[in-house]
Amino acid sequence: MGHTNIYYGTLAGVYDCGFAYWPYQQDMQEQGVGLDEVEMKHFVIGHQDETILMWPDAFTMNDGWVYTIANKGNEFLYGELDFNGPDSNFRIIRVHMDDLSYLA
Predict the structure, then answer these.
(1) What is the pLDDT of residues 61-81, one digit of tens each?
(2) How far apart are CA 56 and CA 103, in angstroms?
(3) Which end of the chain is more exposed for a tag (fewer CB within 10 A), N or C?
(4) How are strands ordered across the β-sheet holding 90-96?
């Protein structure tokens, strides 16, 4: 969660693999309510890449950058994860989003 956005992963079949965010501050302002009553009306695709963001997982932030761990959880679930192949099964992705952590 950032100062202005909440980040979440998107999966193939719904949207392309990647992550999106909900500008909750915008929705709170438009609806005139607090965080406990706001409804999600807007979302924005932050980054998409089905090659490296097959299964975006945990998110964290630092100095305007969003970091996510991406893995091939979908292949693991079906017993198709290849630990001997040339491709990485786990990645750390960094994308500049110009947002700060809610802890900052």
Answers:
(1) 888 898 988 888 777 888 888
(2) 22
(3) C
(4) 55-62, 65-71, 90-96
**Confidence band, pLDDT 50/70/90 cuts, at residue 42:** very high
The H or E element spanning position 60 is strand 55-62
Cβ-contact 83, 89 below 8 angstroms: yes
Positive or negative torsion for Cα 49, 52, 54, 58: negative
Quick one: tokens of 68? Answer: 């996510």
Q: Which two tokens stand for residue 100?
A: 């700060």
- Report d(CA 68, CA 86) in Å as an integer: 22
The type of residue at 51 is T
Global pTM value: 0.75
Sign of CA dihedral 66, 96, 46, 94: negative
* DSSP type of residue 84: S
